[in-house]
Amino acid sequence: MVLFKQLKTLTLSLLVACQFIGGDLMAAEKTLAQPKVIIFDVNETLLDLESMRTSIGAALGGREDLLPLWFSTMLHHSLVSTAIGDYQDFGKIGVASLLMVAQNNAIKLNVEQAKTAIVTPLLSLPAHSDVKAALQILKDRGYKLVSLTNSSNNGVKTQFESAGLTDFFAARFSIEDIKIYKPDLRAYQWALEKLNVKPEEALMVAAHGWDVAGAKEAGLQTAFIARPGKALYPLAKTPDYKVNDLTELVALLK
After folding, report:
1. Distances 37 to 122, 148, 234, 251 between C-alpha atoms, Å
2. Average pLDDT for residues 34-49, to the nearest whole number?
3. Average pLDDT, whole number, for the chain?
4. Where is the signal peptide (predicted)?
5. Which residues pair with 206 in a beta bridge?
6. Are 149 and 156 in contact (CB under 8 A)?
7. Spatial separation of the C-alpha atoms in residues 233 and 179, rounded to whole Å
8. Bridge partners of residue 171, in order along the sequence
């Protein structure tokens, strides 16, 4: 009788152990492969757009609250540009979008005033406070870091120089070269071809739900940085990582 109880206890222990090991194996199977390259969006992901609130607000008669509307309008019409096959420079779309916001809010604004409010401030955005330290750690760990932006080649070059980010990156990619704005899947596929990596070997990092949605659909690993005021698109696939800043992402990457 005692022997039977001992065998029963041993059997139960083995079952529990097998379930535990099986669970660990399943978890291991779901573990993401270490990316060969990390691709960063630029505006709002690395650079803080908040500093433009003053210039945009001044152009819009003190309506600093309209900054997010201006930026989302610019993104919206960049996709219109791609959809209808009529590529326009991102800066020009930004100016046109600011004029639209002004018109819709009964604010007088001309083209030159719009350019003044956008061009210089956009090219001199500061990096978010977590960015430089996080990029340095990732670079020291041997990750290849590149950027992929809707901004022009010259624009992102100037932005990186102004923000002190140039030396962290092995390459900068602008959709200006293919004239197809993110999140069109072709933009991510083009970047992967340039990098000579498979989709699953790249991690796209962005503070925009639409950007991680596009990258995820293109097969990349994705990380959403939940900057203030940013949310995921509920109907898109869930990103592989969701963090509040790059410091948290660094802690998750080996």
Report:
1. 27, 12, 27, 17
2. 97
3. 89
4. 1-27
5. 224
6. yes
7. 24
8. 146
